[in-house]
Amino acid sequence: MIPPRFEPVLAETAELTERFRAAGARLYLVGGTVRDLLLAEDHATIDFDLTTDARPERIKQLLAGWSEAIWTQGERFGTIGAMRAGRTYEITTHRSEAYTDESRKPDVVYSDDVAVDLSRRDFTINAMALELTAATPTLVDPYGGAADLMTRTLRTPLSPEISFSDDPLRMLRAARFLARLDLTPVPELVGAVRAMAGRLGIVSAERIRDELDKLITVSHPAAGLWFVVDTGLAEQFLPELPAMRLEQDPIHRHKDVLTHTIAVIDNVRPPAEWPALTYDFRRTRLAALFHDVGKPRTRGYASGKGVTFHHHDAVGARMTRKRLAALRYSNEDVEAITELVALHLRFHTYSMGWTDSAVRRYVRDAGDLLGELNVLTRCDCTTRNPRKAAMLGRRMDELEERIAELAAHEELRALRPELDGVEVMELLGIPPGRPVGEALAYLMDIRLEDGLIGREAAVARLMAWWQARSVEA
Length: 473
Hints:
two-stranded antiparallel ribbon
């Protein structure tokens, strides 16, 4: 019996279903759509994946006049996309696909049998279908996906060796499902990933990047991250991650650096849990992933202090930039995440308290990443010492209060000198050039140190500086 929660979905797809039925074609909801409906997730947020025995050209004909838009970028893989009433539909001809030993693109073979199509899916929990064109909507579950969903088990429909040969990215996708749905992988799946991890090398950097983003943004990604480290997958696309496992962190003595890093990632909660804060969740999670990546390369020893990691923020920023570029992240992502790694210790340089000048410099350095940097700084505290945790929390509260106080009187988000370059040139009677930049840097230091002093005072300070500079020259 189909659960009542499927009824709105059946009603929404009724017209499309009738079009396929009248054409003698079969149509199924499939994969993640069925899984999420069985998990009682809100169907309003689910894009619909469907499969059919109709070929792509026929699918386009059946969608004509029903969908508001059709796109065919995936047609060579058997997929036609459509949009109706704000919902995205992807309809794919039954298929089996496999990667050759060196290929990054699958070879697609169409099939008329939904069971064959389901057998080539990644995991049993995604190898279920709901036939819409049957006399009564019928769940098709030849590999026990519903039972595995109930018992929180992660398995592949066929042997994991076949599944991961078909698409090696599935090994990384396993990490996401383990974390997202709190699943336990069967031993043969784990063994296959360990044996076949190197095959991830045929998968494009873009696909790996997208899967990493999906893993890093599940509510609690820790289990998935440990899976990619323990199975050797991380060595294939993010070798900096397992490298942190061996480095003892003297600040967090009970944890190695990797354990601390994963705890920091988990500390960065989704925006729904922190509605009062403004920050980019994905970028902050990625910054947490990379924030201590420079520690292995900067590990040293100082008498009386023990193990040190001097300048790991700067070294880590360079490593982060290189790795993100290799994974084909956008320039905007690379710049933002690298800058957060470079700045993640900035809070701790103000141990003597938050003067106005210190607050201005912190805000100036953070720029548009202020929200993300504050969240990362808070989440970087993983100590088990409640007194120390409370102290760090109070210091962060104090900083945010000081930012709010100054922001009420000054435009902190757009810190700039009180005179611009044109005014400097007119006042000093000089053309564009290096002295103008030096004058603006001097005025910016005044702005950061003393705040807004007014145009008259700024002009006086500039003229005095210029006179002193001329005498020295």
